[in-house]
């Protein structure tokens, strides 16, 4: 039985696809690749069908990750029945998801799994930023991915 996680940001071209790719690698490194399914989406549909932001893809590539196959999509209400954990990148998306969520849905901030992050820590949107903003997002998603993989290894493994 697979545990299904969906990572969500606004447009699904920067933060959530970076987190998806990094989390898949962390799960594989923890021997959980066959137990956990990971995908990503945006709360908005502006970029649906398009590739990852080129700056996000370049940052991933610079660190040995491949984001070339990503295609943006919007989170759809009928997904709730098949997803075990929905992780928002920031408070705005968390609020949107919680409004849409059925009772009992597990919806949290992604950085809540980073043991070094303060409470309610967000992954900031790098879209209007510079290369260093994308590097910072990568560092944040790597830390949260490791924390989440550690958590899942204890609870699922």
What does this protein structure show overall?
The protein is α/β, with parallel strands linked by helices. Helix 1 links the parallel strand 1 and strand 2. It has a four-stranded parallel β-sheet. The chain contains four helices and four strands, in the order βαβαβαβα. The mean pLDDT is 97. Helix 1 packs across helix 4 and helix 2 packs across helix 4.
Q: What is the straight-line distance between the termini? A: 12 Å
Helix content: 25-40%
Number of helices: 4
Question: Could you describe the largest sheet, including whether it forms a barrel?
Answer: 4 strands, parallel
- The value of Rg in angstroms is 14 Å
Shape: globular
The fraction of residues in strands falls at: 5-15%
- Main sheet: strand order: 2-1-3-4
Give the uncertain stretches in residue-range form. none
Q: What is the overall pLDDT average?
A: 97
Note the quaternary state here.
single chain
The structural class is alpha/beta
Order of helices and strands: EHEHEHEH
**Beta-strand segment tally:** 4
